[in-house]
Amino acid sequence: MPRGARRNRAVGISSNPLQSVGASRERQREGRLYEPPERHGARSSFAMATPTASPPALGATNARDGRQWSARRVAVVVALFVLAACLEIGGCYFLWRALRLKRDRALALAGAIALTAYGTVFVLVPMDDFGRIMAVYGGFFIVMSYAFGVLVEGFVMDVGDFVGAAVALTGVLVCMLWPR
Is this model's pTM higher than 0.85 or not? Predict the structure, then answer.
């Protein structure tokens, strides 16, 4: 018997790497992602649990603030994100035109006011996690940026733009509506 084989067998480690791979595949099939080996008859307290979250749905309760996602609450959040995107894109566009293109300086003031208003919109969003608010807003910003480009500057979207915007918007809706 090789020198370390007895010690490895005592702690549940196989000296044959193929047996270890097979065992891990078996645990994956059973839904156990990680299970540490037993040591001296006692189980380790460190183990990953399998995910048990249900799919996103309206009516799910947000554990942090106790409020449920209703159609009205979703509409309020979407409206606030659209408002925030209009203020941010418009404010940046006004500043860009005033400073970069050397246009009317009053546009710079209007842009600064719009950007200040943009920063205050997020206080009204009925979600408690600032990081999640900003992450979800990012997807709306992508879609609104494309809309601004098409409506104001005559930008022509291609298939990649449409697919990317749809993926971004779908992803942020999952982040926003996932039950917690």
Answer: no
